[in-house]
Amino acid sequence: MENASAVHAWPDALDLGAMLLLAGMILSLTVAGYVFMVLDYRAYLRSLRRHLVRAWQWIDHTPDWVLRETPPCLRALGLRLPCSEDDLLRAYRNKIKQLHPDRGGDERQFLRIQSQFEASLQFLRRYEASRQASATRSTRSQGIA
Prior knowledge:
mainly alpha, single chain, Helix Hairpins, elongated
């Protein structure tokens, strides 16, 4: 009867070890899941970036139908496509000499020509990049490069 009246202490060493092992497994699996999720997410972002760069190389060209028409920013400077940045700069300087407020020109027209010049410069740079990209694509598709 002494066994029946003996008080059993809980948790004993076996129960405590099992609980700590289970808690450690749950915690380590949770931490491992977050670590693998972050690592996989970073790999996903790198992969997405690679694919977006490839797609942008194919998309980032000016369509041919746009290039056939002279944009208004070039027309304002009296130019037509194809023209170079040197031609643009020369035409801009000639217009500015005529329209500069210090030489009796209208300030609004002067500012408009400046903004048209900046837009033309951006357009010509995109135009050249597009022509180079399409030339590179055509040589790649022919297997030359």
